[in-house]
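During the reporting period the student researcher (J.K.) took over the structure-prediction task from the postdoctoral fellow and processed the backlog of single-chain submissions. One of the processed entries is reproduced below for the supervisory committee.
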Amino acid sequence: MKITALELFHISIPFAKPYKLSRVYGTRYDAEAVILKVHTDKGIVGLGEADPLNPFSEETPATVMVVTRDHLAPQLMGQNPSHISAIESNLDVMVHGNLLARGAVNMALFDIVGKANDIPAHMLLGGLHQSKLKLLSPIGSGTPEEDAASIQQQIEDGYKTVMIKMGALPIADEIQRMIAAREKFIGRIKIIVDANQGWTVAETLEFFDGIGSSRPDLVEQPIDRHDISGLKRIHRRAPCLLSADEGVASVQEAAALIRAQAVDAFSIKVSKNGGLSKAIKIAATADAFGLKILMNSMLEFGITQAASLQLGCVLPNLLDMGHAYMSVLRMSDDITDFGQNISRGVVTVPSSAGLGVRLNEKKLKKYTKDYLKIE
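J.K. obtained the following structure tokens:
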């Protein structure tokens, strides 16, 4: 089997409602992605997806397409897609960085190999650890009253974990949001606070002091991704678990955080981390040192969500809370059928071959802004 062609589709789909993030990321109205099709001489087509979000990622949809055309494709054409490790090693030498573009390729390779052997991708990653995972539901930045309404709705919809986005408002307001949420919903739901690098070290410590006993279950990436010493200071004072997200894109960054004893957990996002091969290395490294994993998401569509689920279901060191497999529910539409796996705050791992997701060609065409084919 050989790779014969690649197709790239830059898509954009509006959110069901605007998504208010931190002061770093602002309010988002549309989600963009690059969908990848890897064609083979056996007629098997592998699906991949890159989910760039500037300034979360340095990559953009345009750079993903150019890097894939100019740097990845020459290394892929004519190669046997089942030789995933060899392809990954070669690309590590030939293409530095560009983890999102790399991730789309890696997902597609696992999809091809799974389809060729009529097995789900998780069988290539070690096999099922659990067949169902609890979901978390994110809520954007808002007032305590808006938070309460959103959390109540999530509880009614079956969710046991919410991720409250912070980092856009003054710390005094964020403290009040946390206190109000914990007091109203104590014992009913787990709470993750995600500031998306929106705070300073001083603001994070002020938040911890201000919330008193109204603690979240986990705080994710409160400060700049590069400030490991700052995370270490925060970790010493944290009244709850602390997770890195933007700060752990590569295995090397994971190792640096572990050496510094700066966090308790890593937030894995298969697109951010460069695909399944690299993400599972990060998860295994974390497990070796007693760190837990939160399966999180970019602003993703169904292909990345499916790849992430194939990984999450094999990991023994997941946090005992909900994980982010509801990204397609935030969108006004999706180009896949991934949503059929979600029900009442739980996602079920599909048993079909490859990534276990089907592409809707009509919707793909409808939402495509730019297209590129490489032969």
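The committee noted the following: The CA atoms of residues 132 and 348 lie 5 Å apart.
J.K. will present the remaining backlog at the next meeting.
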